[in-house]
Specification:
By secondary structure, this protein is an alpha+beta fold. It folds into three domains: 48 residues; 116 residues, 2-Layer Sandwich (Uridine Diphospho-n-acetylenolpyruvylglucosamine Reductase, domain 3); 104 residues, Enolase-like, domain 1 (2-Layer Sandwich). 33% of the residues lie in helices and 24% in strands. The strands form four sheets. Strands 4-5-10-6-7 form a five-stranded antiparallel β-sheet. The chain has a four-stranded antiparallel β-sheet with strand order 11-12-13-14. The protein has a three-stranded parallel β-sheet with strand order 1-3-2, with helices on one face. β2, α2 and β3 form a beta-alpha-beta unit. The longest helix has 21 residues. InterPro entries: CO_DH_flav_C (IPR005107), CO_DH_flav_C_dom_sf (IPR036683), Diverse_Substr_Oxidored (IPR051312), FAD-bd_PCMH (IPR016166), FAD-bd_PCMH-like_sf (IPR036318), FAD-bd_PCMH_sub1 (IPR016167), FAD-bd_PCMH_sub2 (IPR016169), Mopterin_DH_FAD-bd (IPR002346). This is Xanthine dehydrogenase FAD-binding subunit XdhB. It holds the Pfam family CO_deh_flav_C. Keywords: Flavoprotein, Oxidoreductase.
Length: 290
């Protein structure tokens, strides 16, 4: 039996913000796939919940007038990988979405919940880091935009105020136009397992050289990370085996994985190098530079 003291179900975002402002002890819940597990393990006593599941205004995936892609916080992972907007413009996020759990979980779990849970293994995080996603956070009397790369504050910790709700994930056109990418999740099992390592690469090639390269990792540090040294090294350089190997080595140096029962530090470092080289060799040399 879940230890739930109270659950409030507002009918609108404005109502939700008012309720939250009056009681900042409320724990926000949408799909509930993370919160219910914590309740099951007794991590919350007398839980007070604010369900935003029925706020349809947070369920849209749309392209704004300036071609920014807007993804509502209540959008599920099934919504993402079925979306034409996502698949036509940022398929790297669709790859991340379909790798998350099984069909039942994907039908319930929301991208907003996946981000705000702060888990280093969140499947959406590496793809969103590579896309330079921005987060719109609203409170009763304020609204602010935060870069996702500045949102994580440690394992399971994010920089959201107690009276704020994440409403939208925003991806500007400059961060997806003319870019290709790929996300690989490595886990001990092929299905229904938490990521041992997540690798997201987004790149743009011009004249057989890297015009842009973004490498993001999950479960390679206390929070998801961008491999800045590896990225900066590649810009302007030709897409060659020598450059790719150096990029992979620099990415290992940018990371700081830990030992855990899912995999050792050394094995994760090996995976970082191997998966980066696999993506760049398979997806670039074979399809772009031939």
């Amino acid at each position: 039996m879940f230890d739930i003291k109270e659950i409030k179900e507002p009918k609108s975002l404005d109502e939700a913000l008012k309720v939250l402002d009056s009681n900042t002890k409320l724990k926000i819940i949408s799909g509930g796939t993370d919160v219910l597990i914590k309740l099951h393990h007794g991590k919350f006593n007398d839980a007070e919940l604010l369900s935003i599941k029925n706020l349809d205004t947070l369920r849209d995936i749309k392209v704004l007038e300036d071609n920014t892609i807007s993804i509502g916080a209540n959008v599920t992972f099934s919504d993402i990988f079925r979306s034409e907007v996502i698949n036509n413009n940022i398929p790297i996020l669709s790859e991340a979405a379909v790798s998350m759990g099984g069909p039942q979980i994907r039908n319930m779990a929301t991208i907003g919940g996946n981000i705000c849970n702060g888990a280093v293994s969140a499947d959406s995080a590496p793809a969103l880091f590579s896309l330079n996603a921005e987060l719109k956070l609203k409170s009763l009397n304020n609204e602010r935009i935060v870069k996702i790369t500045e949102f994580y504050d440690g394992p399971g910790k994010v920089k959201i105020q107690r009276n704020e709700i994440l409403t939208e994930i925003l991806i500007k056109e400059e961060n997806y136009k003319n870019k290709r990418g790929r996300y690989i999740k490595f886990a001990n099992r092929k299905a229904l397992d938490i990521s041992m390592l997540g690798v997201a690469l987004l790149y743009e090639i011009e004249d057989n050289s890297f015009k842009d390269l973004r490498i993001s990792l999950g479960v390679a540090s206390p929070t998801p990370i961008r491999c800045k040294n590896a990225e900066n090294f590649a810009i302007g350089k030709g897409v060659t085996n020598e450059v790719i190997n150096k990029v992979a080595e620099l990415a290992k140096m940018d990371s700081n994985p830990r030992n855990s029962w899912r995999g050792s530090r050394d094995y994760r470092l090996h995976l970082i190098s191997t998966l980066i080289k696999r993506i760049l060799n398979d997806d670039l040399i074979k399809s772009e530079v031939k």
